[in-house]
Amino acid sequence: MGQWLKQKLSLRRALVWIALSTICTTGIGSTAFLYYSHHKEQRALDDHYYIVAVVQTGPDKEALPTSYLAELLDLSVDRPTNLYRFDVKKGVKKLLGSPLIKNATIQKVIPGTLYIDYALRTPVAFLGDYSNTAVDSEGYIIPFKPFFTPKRLPTLYVGANHVEGNWNEHASGPEVDLALKLLHELSVECLEKGITLLSIDTSNAFSASYGQREIVVTLEDQVQKENLGQMTLCLWPTLLRLDTQHYQDGWKDYLLLRKQLQKSIKHLVHDGENPVVTLSTVVVNLRISDIAFINKVTKK
Question: Is the pTM of this model over 0.70?
């Protein structure tokens, strides 16, 4: 009986100690939390922690103006923002709302600096049916000026009524999709062969009239000829008319014809010519399988 009572008292004492420990721990935790919250609130009111600098990093050579990033984040010298009141998640969302920014992260650095790491959407072609409008490699619509330095990019003509999408949205529509596909397929091969891709026109690629249905690709081709030890560069614009369904076959046929065109063009260049000779536009119609219609090539 005495032993049982002693065990019961020991158990009761243990429960009391547990309860007291829990109360103490909770009290300490609550006190610490209240202190932290109070300290955080004090810092959120302290002008020592105003955001005074924005540092940007990223993989792109052409950085956006810091003032543009500050504007996106609603940062102003007249209305300074406290670093502790700045919401990082909302800030990232605002940055991604720009059509120019592909991805972004923000890091707060005490006492008043924001580190922004981001990647730009790089223009790969202009949309010729619209002013100051370009697309990136994924087909997103972006403004060009004043954010990028002048570049010689291909121009896509898809028809003003055939583009669906706004800034920071993916351009869609069969004419757009076909133009982007052609751009990806031809760009690398043109670069390897020294051909400049000037434009791709798919505005009539799906015309109701079969007679008007075509893809038009404009190139600037070149060949060099040596004259009395002096090299002459011959440039000639080339306009390819391709069938919508079999444009790849037409492109292969042009590459075969190109070798013959280069030989013919060399014969047009005589001794004593200027270092650069520009010829008239060569129109190559390859819409009918295994048949090519070529206009006469002359000097300008």
Answer: yes
